[in-house]
Amino acid sequence: MEGSLNMAIYAIWNNKGGVGKSYLTFQVACEYARQNPSKKVLVVDMCPQANSSSMLLGGMVNGENQLNTIHSQPRRVTISGYLEDRIASPYQSPGTGSTYLTQVSNHNHSVPSNLFLVVGDEQLETQASRVANATRPRSARCVAYCAFVGRRLDSGHLDALES
Ligand SMILES: Nc1ncnc2c1ncn2[C@@H]1O[C@H](COP(=O)(O)OP(=O)(O)OP(=O)(O)O)[C@@H](O)[C@H]1O
Ligand SMILES: [Mg+2]
């Protein structure tokens, strides 16, 4: 991260499972942070399995334990915690993004201190439809709702839809 206007962003994605996405993310992020100590590196783990997060937090049993500890805190400092803020405010940034960062070296001393993580979260699975509903225009939701109830739309339906 070098400021919002001078920041390289890489997305590692593949529709096929088990091809090395999580492991590559872990390795590339750690190595880039090690070779560039003056830069800050942020990994945003958008996978509900949170395997990259687990690896960064120590791997194996230790990584899973760290992940479970983070997931069981009253305030969910994960990608899902941030998405909850965005579901409530989908069109205007709530300005809370930085409060969801985890400095990885606080959990895993083998990782450089310039590496930060937005921890993955299994709740992403259940949030997906809520994210879609939060950003779908009201008229589209009305059509879907009317199709569901199978009758004409009136103001009562609209009120129910918005509540
Ligand atoms: N370069 C590599 N050399 C050897 N083994 C690797 C390499 N990259 C990944 N693996 C191993 O392959 C397996 C799958 O890797 P990984 O979990 O990163 O895949 P993935 O694409 O993230 O899977 P998923 O779709 O389930 O999220 C893991 O056991 C990982 O340790
Ligand atoms: Mg993976």
Task: Please render the helix and strand layout as text.
Layout: H1 21-35, E1 41-44, H2 51-56, H3 60-71, H4 79-88, E2 102-103, E3 115-118, H5 124-135, H6 138-149, H7 155-162
Parallel strand pairs: 1-3
Antiparallel strand pairs: 2-3
Helix pairs in contact: 4-5
The structure holds adenosine-5'-triphosphate and magnesium ion.
Q: Which features does this protein show?
A:
single chain; 163 residues; mainly alpha; 3-stranded mixed beta sheet; 46% helix; globular; binds adenosine-5'-triphosphate; binds magnesium ion
Account of the protein in words:
This protein has seven helices and three strands. The chain has about 160 residues and is mostly helical. It has a domain at about 20-120. The chain has a three-stranded mixed beta sheet with strand order 1-3-2, with helices on one face. Helix 4 runs parallel beside helix 5. The termini are far apart. Magnesium ion binds near residues 22 and 47. Adenosine-5'-triphosphate binds next to helix 1.
Subunit arrangement of the protein: single chain
In this entry the ligands are: adenosine-5'-triphosphate, magnesium ion
Question: What's the overall average pLDDT, rounded?
Answer: 87
In which order are the strands of the major sheet placed?
1-3-2
**Alpha carbon gap, first and last residue:** 39 Å
Number of strands: 3
- Global structural class: mainly alpha
Q: Tell me about the biggest sheet?
A: 3 strands, mixed
Number of DSSP helical runs: 7
Q: Which word captures the global form?
A: globular
How much of the sequence is in beta strands?
Answer: 5-15%
Helix content: 40-55%
**SSE string, helices as H and strands as E:** HEHHHEEHHH
Radius of gyration: 19 Å
Q: Which stretches are poorly predicted, pLDDT < 50 over at least 5 residues? A: 144-153
